[in-house]
Amino acid sequence: MDIKRVNYWNHSSKTKFVFVKDENSPFISIDIWCKAGISFEKNDQEGIAHFLEHMIFKGNNKLKPGEFDYKIESLGGSSNASTGYDDTHYYVLIPPDNFEESISLLTNLVFNPTININEFRLEKSVVIEEIKQQNDQPEEILFNYFLNRVWKGHFYGKPILGREEYINKINVNDLKAFHHERYTPDNVCIAIAGDLPKNILKILENTNIDFKKRRDKLIKNKKHSKFSIRTAREKVFFNKLQLSRLLMAWQIPSLKDQRSIVGLEILASLLVDGRNSKLGRPLKEEQNLVESLHVDINTGEYGSLMILEACCSNINLNLVEEKINFILKKIIELEEFTKEELIKAKRIVKSNYFFNLETASQKTSFFGNNLLWERKDPLENLELNLDYWNNKKNFKEIINYLGKKKYTLLAHGK
After folding, report:
1. Strands 233-237 and 188-194
2. Are strands 244-252 and 88-94 parallel, antiparallel or unpaired?
3. Dist CA 246 CA 410 (whole Å)
4. Residues 179-194: tens digit of each pLDDT
């Protein structure tokens, strides 16, 4: 991807923009990013970030409930939203000819919602039903339990949907206050990608992005204190699990340390990508001890985890743990990987980044999220970070994370 086709601009409202030109795209993606994830919730308001995401689609003084979706669909587009640990984003995918009307509709919807009491009551029951459905899925229950144990009271250990008892306590004024605090010029940005109109800046300057109601007082971002994960080995029993699980977690740097995150992604690939990977070959290909094996770099702006998950039969669970610990120890002590294996893992990581930048919506997701957290030119920095880990001596910094204290959960299934 040509980084010269990425440009940054500030609106008169102080809203930050990033544009990604792609004349071959049949659609334009408009993506509004907000620092309004669960990490900004009060302790007694778990789930309010996700609840507000639902309520924003219920309209305002200019849009009746459901009218936004109807208008976007009538313009040949689609819309959606997602709430995460640190941020929430709202996006539409529309034909280029209907860009001007769509950007006006989306900004008006997100920045000026009206929390209608009747819609609030209806949507509260929808959110609670979503929580109940999640709590009926064994995999979700296990992973939420695992995160809660690892983070030991940290906000990353909370479920994004919240819990029913907290949702029931949230009122209309709580939602309005959360929106007032989080949806401000300093906390939002907008990413646009696709076949952009030549007069895009004129269109945007004529778009009313109204933050006037929020300028009555300056609200500082909440400070997040340092923390450490739980380091222990625990066993639990989940009768509904078809296969047992081994879950391990290491504390790693936050997304602010992009170089280390890229290095850890290379390590994850080295461990499990392909039949000849360091863990995949002995555990799956040669001894058939596991059904599946994954290493995920679970990232956040205020902290991250490297999570290893192995699925296997109950009878093999302890043996799988033993063998994984043995292999990881050899990697740490003997650096049992070659320069060629390191280059291959790096190539896989690089390919994954670029494969996930093919569509307009993928581009707005990547560049929008990075801009929100003050990371400009992420692709240029990606290349520099990948090159740094070419050196085996440098990569020792990453291998050393495997030797740090970790949390282990053995979840026994049927």
Report:
1. unpaired
2. unpaired
3. 5
4. 999 999 999 999 999 9
